[in-house]
Amino acid sequence: MPDTPSTTTESGDSAQEQPFRGGDGRTTGATIRLESLSKTYPGSTEPAVDNVSLEIEAGETVIFVGPSGGGKTTLLKMINRLIEPTSGRIKINGEDVTDMDAVKLRRNVGYAIQQSGLFPHMTVAQNIATVPKMLGWKKARIKARVEEMLDLVGLEPAEFQQRYPRQLSGGQQQRVGVARALAADPPVLLMDEPFGAVDPITRDHLQDELIRLQHELRKTIVFVTHDFDEAIKIGDRIVVLREQSHIAQFDTPEAILTNPADDFVSGFVGAGAALKRLNLTRVRDVNVGEVPVATFDQPLRSIFSLLDSGQGNEVLLLDKHRRPYKWLRRGDLMRAKGSLARAGTPVNDTVTRDATLRDALEAVLTDNAGRVAVTGRRGEYTGVVDMTTLMNSVHELLDEDRMEAIEHQHQLEEQAAEEGSS
Amino acid sequence: MNARHDHRSGSQGDSRGDRELLASLKHERDGVEDPGDDEVLAEVPAEDKPLARLTWPKLTVLPGVVGLLLLATWLWFRGADLDAVAQNSISGGNVQVRLLQHVQLTVISTFFVLIIAIPLGIALTRGKVSRIAPFAMLFANLGQAVPSLGLLILLVIWFGIGAKTAIIGIVIYAILPVLANTIAGLRANDPALLEAAKGIGMSPLTVLTRIELPLAVPLILGGVRTALVLNVGTATLATFGGGGGLGDLITDGITNQRMPVLFLGSVLTVALALLVDWLASLAELLLRPRGLEGAS
Predict the structure, then answer these.
(1) How far apart are CA B145 and CA A337, in angstroms?
(2) Cα–Cα 20 to 30 A to A336, which of A57, A100, A178, B21?
(3) Do B200 and A323 make contact, defined as CB atoms within 8 angstroms?
(4) What is the ipTM metric for this complex?
């Protein structure tokens, strides 16, 4: 056991108990710097983690992704020294924590694992209170904090506080696990495949939740997963690790998708990189088209003239809140004998401006006329996307990504050249 | 992802559109409570307070049976025709003295079993010491494999006659179940859970006292219960080492060929064992940590 003997003093000397933290108030992220970190397990000649150097910025979500057995969990556990590195340094917020009391270090680094790791004999409240209690917080403060954390992860405090973990669903357990990890307001949160054991639908919700949480809290999150789609969805930057934790590529999701560093990365990204790219762009970021629109209270004559004016052969009929209601084609009105109420086909699918291009594509593909209305916050009409819009946007995006990647490559080469000459 | 699902309102006319919009807005507000989770919700928390576990049948059935057994024995004794030898064996408060001795033997030996076996079990699951666990188990097995009477006689040769010798014998004999269960209980804990405890900043001592031991309580208590019942039984052999106890009544009955005396000694031993087992079962119910029902 690589554990340093700990002081079990439960005194609340907060200055001493809370290293590498900013001033008062909410703690936001801290930088993490790994300097030539290696780990060789006793009895093996090959290192499990070989000379990894990595710099993670404050408030950033970085995903370690790679095949299983690649040492990504080992690398993560070295940050809170559950696994002691054989050599190399770990610096959090500039402070060297490699030789610091491991117990003290861990109380200031949130840790969430697969299947939540909740203590089955403690209530939800007791589980969340564990770290604040160890840090010597006052009872009233702990109580308030527990309720705040449950609120934060979307569980009703009154309902869930006194439950035991086995009385929760997998997704709820995972939420409590995150709440426990965040309870002492640590600047850094380590997550080891936290959503690996829940069903796909719940996992999707939990991922959305985590993105929302991170938007509020701005912690530094290091997240391990083997699911590349999860990495793309959550990560600000992604570290693709090959065996022995060699870094294959460390870049933004966009860059990795459009410009994988080598065959290993492109193999891991898998087929359909262009499709995955669609997940990263929202409808509001592309040029949304327009169609002629009309409302119910407009006279029929003006609707006829709109149809005849030649801007496409359709008119989108809006209801009184300006929400898309019906598609009207030329001839529809004739067939319905001039009655607006009976004419046209009802709108059965819309996308919001916040939807991803992938959602938009799906909607366009399923729509029988190949177009779908885009709506704003309150469901009001803001435009239309169709196949052409999508294809043009995707081409533009991919071109931009490629240009950026080439520029990035150039920069790296220049840097290398400079370093070489100096 | 969510954004689209939320706004699929088709606006089929104003009133319906309004309702859908309201619903979708509401959903947005409650969006944090994902509906996918609620379906799999576990059953509503059962009344799991320790006191609530003590149901009436558990409290009354066994003492009732033992009470009836003792009452029947007493009635039979009142009507029995006892000669002077038998009278001699049970008169002058002899029965009470022997019973008290027996209880003392059981309690003291169990106490020593606990303070030896549980810390030993904990030590044998820590770090490097855990490597010698198989050898320790071998010794504990040996203690139980040796016939208890033979062990007692050997100890008498070594330590001389007396209650102390009897207690040492009983302790050696009963260490195994408690030790084995302590080790098994601690080993049964999920390593991932213990790592999580360590990972959130618990010191090794805190992990042991707050997580490992509470979770191992059901198994450890099972071992203690076995040891207690075993001790009531082995304590009858204390008589051969001059340790007293109900064994005296039994041997008296046998050597003097007085069936009633033998019978009384045996019935009292059986009743004592049943009562001790019953008390231990109540302790098991009360001390088991909450939240574990159905899990382990």
Answers:
(1) 101
(2) B21
(3) no
(4) 0.70
